[in-house]
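Milestone M4 deliverable, item 7.
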Amino acid sequence: MRRAVVAGGSLAGLLAARVLHDVADEVVIVEPDDLPDHAANRAGTPHGDQFHVLLGMAQQLFAHWFPTLFDRLALDGAVGYSHGEIRMFVDGGMRLPVPGDPLMPVLRPLLEWHVRGDVLKLPTVRLVRDRVVGLTAGLGRVDGVRLASGASVGTADLVIDATGRSSRLGDWLRRLDFAPPPKRRMGLDLGYATTLYRRFPEQRLDDLVAVHSLRSAVSAEPGVSVVAPAGRDRWICTVSAYGTQRPGRSPDEFRARCEREPAAGFAALARECEPAGPVSVYRYPHSVRRDFHELRRFPAGLVPVGDAVASFNPVYGQGMPSAALHASALSAWLASGEDVHGYFRRLRVLVDAAWQTSVAADLALPHLRAERPRGHRLMRAVSGAIDRATLSDPIVARRFLDVVNMRAHPRELLRPTLLTRAFLAPTPTNPRVQRSEQ
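Output delivered:
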């Protein structure tokens, strides 16, 4: 491959560029944002100051492409935590801790800065500061991009759309007389808020380093809250809720939400630590996926990655792992020699798995105005049984964590032997007592 063009320089675009570096003589990244020369947020990532975590599969892929990345993140204060230091709660009940690879909360600007620096140092990669506004094509294949400045980047063997959930690829396809992909939306009206707190050296909260708290659809205030180190001297805490319960910017309201959180750690944070910055908020209106696999006609020389394909409810942490898995699928497809539909078949498997995980939980939310599919009540019962079993059955807890970390497909949770364990598992009579005895 002589030249590849990547529209968008966020993480999905950077990971695609890293993969393309192995097969292309030249990789051109087109990005409109001013890119800071240090770890700072930018306009293209308005949620960059919110909580982000690299789940297991994402860690493996990032480490493969950037072998020294995690050592450098650690030098810059990123703190990974082991299974013994994190607890996950469901409505105040503690899931069984499961030995495994550590999770790493990361400040998005810091991660992106390191990855961007590594990618732009590659000898075949160059950056163009501009915005892609369309495609150029001939003989049924895309061969370049048109830029907002009036210039273009042509003679491309492959163009990657990594422009995110607001991608205009459907419009660009129409201009070339191709149909846009069918689109599905799941209205969520999710809001989340994040604050940094001062952290004493080696400080723990209720003897924990990190806490993940799920308030399920049956709770009075569904959502997810997380507290974890954001460096040696900072905690990062995020709270979320839906609809009229979305959190605002008030520090007093944020503190009150921490104090009423049913899991360990949050009240201790509000009681023991001082805020180290303002409350930042972000609203996420809906999940969306574009079903490229349903298109019969699609131009050669063009593929999407990341949120340009599918953007999921962010409380499940699937965004960065999905971007990494899409880049891995891109690499495998390029090596296979298949046509573009082969790429879309690979992508569908990944998107279906992530969509199934998030949408199955989202459809249980009482405020959600969406038609429930046939079998929804049965799936709710199954999901509830699995959630309860993670409080007491180590095998169910392990398989559940594999799915959360995107190492295993959600169908693994539907195997008859595992479902039997889930429905027969005892529920701890007093989760709070169990938590305090750990």
